[in-house]
């Protein structure tokens, strides 16, 4: 996944041109994530019952309100993490890559730095104005968010609602809930392949609409 470098800028008030605010339910989440992880065999797995609360809270925090926007966030995480199985990238040389969105460095650094509660811990690892090149430090930065489920699930909502990483018009367009809107999001905001990621989108949007 190729999350582009980002600045931690807030997105303006979300628009809901074609859908009302959705209150995500467990039934919707179970229908959206067809192949959830298994905590008995996958140590980083978060079962859907435990994922619901963090998703609800981060959707509210980052104004991911409409079914289309929520489906997009769920779909990208379900695909990238294997049904919420992996919050640390399986390739050990991909330093600092993770969360359930599998966000790459340096975007993960921008995300961590946007969280006020992590400010002192982040600054202890990364001095202002410096560029992190040490893989071990990148992994420590990632650990600040993977150790907390709200932060781990919040990466995708933060990224998609941040006008520095995703054009507000593309973000707002997700409210249409169409394949074209999701393809535009993947190509213009995530900078990644499309075809392999459409099935999790179809599952998620069918569950939420």
Q: pLDDT under 50 segments (min length 5)?
A: 4-18
- Total helix count? 10
Give the overall pLDDT as a whole number.
92
Label the overall shape: globular
Number of domains: 1
CATH architectural category: Orthogonal Bundle
Order of helical and strand elements: HHHHHHHHHH
Round the Cα radius of gyration to an integer and report it: 16 Å
Question: What kind of sheet is the major sheet?
Answer: none
* Named CATH topology: Lysozyme
State the total count of DSSP E strands.
0
Note the gap between the termini.
26 Å
Please report which band the strand proportion falls in: under 5%, 5-15%, 15-25%, 25-35%, 35-45% or over 45%: under 5%
Helix-strand category: mainly alpha
CATH structural class: Mainly Alpha
Helix content: 40-55%
Secondary structure blueprint with pairings:
Elements: H1 26-32, H2 48-61, H3 67-81, H4 107-113, H5 119-125, H6 135-146, H7 149-161, H8 168-173, H9 179-190, H10 198-208
Helix pairs in contact: 1-10, 2-7, 3-7, 3-10
């Amino acid at each position: 996944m190729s999350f582009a470098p980002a600045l931690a800028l807030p997105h303006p008030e979300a628009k809901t041109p074609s859908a009302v605010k959705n209150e995500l339910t467990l039934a919707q989440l179970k229908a959206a994530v067809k192949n959830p992880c298994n905590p008995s065999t996958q140590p980083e797995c978060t079962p859907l019952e435990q994922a619901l609360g963090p998703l609800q809270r981060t959707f509210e925090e980052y104004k991911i309100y409409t079914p289309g926007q929520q489906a997009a966030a769920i779909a990208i995480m379900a695909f990238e993490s294997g049904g919420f199985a992996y919050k640390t990238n399986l390739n050990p040389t991909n330093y600092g890559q993770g969360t359930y969105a599998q966000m790459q460095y340096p975007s993960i650094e921008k995300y961590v730095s946007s969280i006020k509660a992590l400010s002192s811990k982040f600054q202890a690892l990364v001095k202002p104005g410096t560029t992190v090149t040490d893989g071990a430090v990148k992994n420590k930065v990632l650990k600040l968010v993977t150790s907390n489920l709200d932060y781990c699930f919040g990466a995708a909502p933060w990224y998609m609602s941040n006008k520095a990483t995703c054009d507000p018009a593309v973000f707002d367009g997700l409210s249409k809930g169409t394949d074209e809107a999701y393809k535009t999001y993947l190509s213009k905001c995530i900078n990644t392949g499309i075809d392999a990621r459409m099935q999790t989108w179809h599952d998620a949007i069918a569950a939420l609409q």
